[in-house]
Model the fold of this input.
Amino acid sequence: MRNLWDRYYADAQGLIYVIDSADVGRFEEASLAFEAVKEQAHFHAIPILLVANKQDLLDACGVVEIEQQFHADRIRQEVPFSIQPMSALNGDGVNGGMQWLVKALEKRS
Done:
């Protein structure tokens, strides 16, 4: 499936990347996939929202751990970037993430 991604994001104005923040065993894989997508020419300088889903679970990693795993400080030097803790199950964090992305997009125009 990942080999098809580049066909769909040529005209992207922003990127929303969702991770399962309770599945620490797949953080490395998710981080590598994120880096591969982020490095595509289409994504240089566009806002990136990393959604840390499943924050409603007790074993979910917090934002600080996710920032370290995904090298947030480095990314913020390159592009507008935010990590949004979220629970798709109950909707917590959805509005905050979308509001950040809208504001980031407005700054670009």
Summary: The longest strand covers residues 15-20. The helical segments are 5-8, 27-38, 63-69, 72-78, 94-108.
